[in-house]
Amino acid sequence: MTVLAMTNTNRRAGRLGQEEGSVEMAGPTTFTMPIPPSVNQMFRNVRGKGRVKTGHYEAWSAAAATSMRLQQVQPVTGPVLVIFGVERHSLAADIDNRIKAMLDAIVKAKIIRDDSDVTAFAAAWLPSANGLAHVQIFPTTELGIVFHPSRDRVTGGWFVSTQPSQGDACNGTFDQ
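-> structure tokens emitted (176 positions)
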């Protein structure tokens, strides 16, 4: 089984190592960006103008765009699955408040056409290291995904298997 950790930093999509007899799958597009601001810090209300982007959000957006450009992140077309790993800097922060900014930056950088192309995503807090958010984008396919928490259970990482699960096949519906 081939397993990828969230800290993989390949710059362009490619082929993962294949086991004999396995189905070939395109590898993820993997890159990093600065940790985004919380949704609560992205916008403010201005009398006569309504909701506007904050200076903090504008600065982060520019830094994220530069980061992706320098890593030469290649576009991914069609439906995608996204895995986010955000280095945790505060126990009070909500991880879901970081996703919107990252998806908006990925769309603005033309890595994906629109966030409506995201079929599914997973997110996890990572241990604090370099102040980065780590992103993996896969073309939509069946993936085996496992979460491994840290010892203190406040961070962890998603691990992706390129081998489809051997369990019951799902036809894409959730009928009971």
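The radius of gyration is 17 Å.
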